[in-house]
Amino acid sequence: PIYPTLDFGFFQFLRRNYVPIGLFYRDIYWRFPFYRKQVSWLKRTIAIINYRYDWWQYQRKVDHLFLPSAKMKAYLPVEWPADRCSQLPPGCDLIPVTKEQSFAGDEGRILRLFYVGGVMPPLYDLRPTMHLLRDMENMHLTLCCRREEWSIAKKYYEEVMPSNITIVHASGAQLLNYYQAADVFLICRAGNKYLDFALPVKVLEALGYALPIVTLRGSEASRFIEAEGTGWVVSSLREMRELLEGLCRNRERLEQKRVELLNIRKKHTWETRAMSVAETLSRYKESIS
């Protein structure tokens, strides 16, 4: 904050040396009402002034804008030319899949679900997850979140949280065992306007582990999962319950999907994302030289 022009001075140096500039804008939460409730009036006012200053500079110095999804463009604070903007979803690392993860011949065993991410409402409201898993004795969910978030959010869920959910706190390399022990990555949250265009990194992280995803329709994550075939998308909790029950009875569907993911994930690595960026920015080379 005490050097607000530092980045843009470097951008100017790049432009003088004919280097194309691409900028990835990860999220735009400050444009939504929930941001106003999370920070004080003074902090919010100062922050928004600086956010808008950033965008004034972007318009002058950035050649190409990358966004997590195409739908995010509608929420930008400025008009941005369509031919200078494209979507750039997160990528994944290809995690070796062990033989122990094979699902075939495992019918009747409890279906092991995994979720890692935010739990703080209203942005991340997991009450639908709680309602879904109630009375589903053949399901168990490991829910991973930040310790400090859960210490606040647990009061919100304590009356609806079933016994077949275990709360853990892990990150980075600590997540390896949880991903490898899971059968399905579950995303079952209440709808939110912000999540309509946000694509969580965890969606691609699960893909890196070749872990099938089950989610509700109506989010950018669901559109990605459906388009790329990385799991199953349903329209209601009833459909989700039926799907999970079916997967528990028929483990061959999970095995088939896992095999598919081993190939699908190869086109979504961080390396392929970087190659896409390089290809896009190379088009600007002649125009600025």
Strand content: 5-15%
Gap between N and C termini, in Å?
33 Å
Q: Using DSSP, what is the number of strands?
A: 9
Helix content: 40-55%
Q: Could you give the order of the helices and strands?
A: HEHHEEEHEHEHEHEHEHHHH
Order the strands across the largest sheet as they lie in space.
6-5-4-7-8-9
What structural class do the secondary elements suggest?
alpha/beta
Inertia-based shape: globular
Mean pLDDT: 91
Report Rg: 21 Å
Tell me what the structure shows.
It is a single chain. By secondary structure, the chain is of the alpha/beta class. A 6-stranded parallel β-sheet has the order 6-5-4-7-8-9, sandwiched between helices. A 3-stranded parallel β-sheet has the order 1-2-3, covered by helices on one side. Helix 4 (127-133) crosses helix 9 (237-249). The chain has 12 helices and 9 strands.
